[in-house]
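2024-03-11 09:14:02 INFO queue: dequeued item DUF342 domain-containing protein, len=452
2024-03-11 09:14:02 INFO validating residues
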Amino acid sequence: MNIDLDLSIDKMLATICIRLQEGEALPTVEELKQYLAKGGINYGVDEKALEQAIKNHGSIITVAKGESPTEPIDGVVEYKFPLKTEIKPKEDKSGNVDYFDLGFVFNVKAGDLLATKTPPVEGKPGHDVTGKALMPKKPFNPKFVAGKGAKLSEDGLSIFAEVAGTPRLIDGRVVVLQTLDVDKDVDFATGNIVFNGSVNIRGSVLSGFSVEADGDVIIAGIVEEATVKAKGNVIIRSGFEGGAKGLLQAGKSVNVKFVHNGKVFAGEDVLIESEAFFSRITAGNKIIMQGRNSQITGGNVEAGMEIRCRAIGSYKHTKTLVSAGVVPGLREKLEGVTNRIKSIEAQIKKAKELEEKFLYLKKRQKENFPQAQAEALENVQKTIESYINQKESLQKVKEEIIKTKEERKGGRIISDIIYPGVVVTIADISQEITEEIRGANVRIEEGELKFY
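2024-03-11 09:14:37 INFO prediction written
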């Protein structure tokens, strides 16, 4: 008797064919199972199929089948708020303002459901007919984290708002950003405003008051001799009458209609519609005067890369300082680092003089050199090493500052008219204008200021 045993390529099927010679007896089911086991088939054996193989000897019968692993089910997060939103205040037909409803922004109140998660389901392992385990692939388990202003449920499958505000998905975290809407002037009725979100002010900010926000500050009215600080943008629909103490400061950009006698600092750009008179304005990137009759007169205006304005100075030859290719505070930082290096060098010199005295005594006294002085010598040497390390670190900082200054020589100043009395600076090269220049594009070439 011959029994032909065959396996599929993936070892998920096993077939046999029983071939009898004349006078031979048929095998039993148990004998076939033993035969299969010797052939390495020990999973998914079908006894009924073995009976069929005996009954229909001479035919090829599938007698064992493997089991494929079940597919896993990926986890899914469903957000109950739009992932892309735009901050814009909203009014109803009666003109009433909802303090937390900003129109296109999706607003929530404390306790609102923000997101749900359906957890992943692991697939089940399978086996081929030899008994080898077939492992399923791992399911995707999406990030599901509650950030500031949001709370994860105890079962970890829901996120709720803890405060009223605007939900956002930031770096994979569900957070609630709070936005404050003020429908009046910032004055004695409100006091100073400190807010960890964005602030929309329908009125003005009066002299002596301040507004600080972690987000943007948007002001419909005017800013007097007041302080407005934002880590985001500062947008003033009217202008800024800064006086002696007024300040606008933005981590990103400042956008204002005009600036009179004020201080303005922006990490990115400063956009001014009309004029900037007798003001200190500093931008990390650009200062763009957008109006047709825009003018910079008096004061000190500095931009990291570029200044654009129709007119700079005035026909009265008003002293006006404009600088491009200047990193705000870089000059002062370089001066501070340089002075610190000089101070450390002086300390190193003193310490080395003291070290030389100890070494001289040690050489003379040899084994009689006192232990206390030996310890003092060791401390002096450690101090010298510390000073040298500090100097090397500061030297690297200085080199980076100098490198940045060189890179900023690509700055430029563009103006239709530059009047006499204006001092133009690109990077660290300055020139006072003595004659009216029209259609000026000022930049550095070959180490000199060029006017095109």
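2024-03-11 09:14:37 INFO annotate: The two ends are 104 Å apart (CA to CA).
2024-03-11 09:14:38 INFO item closed
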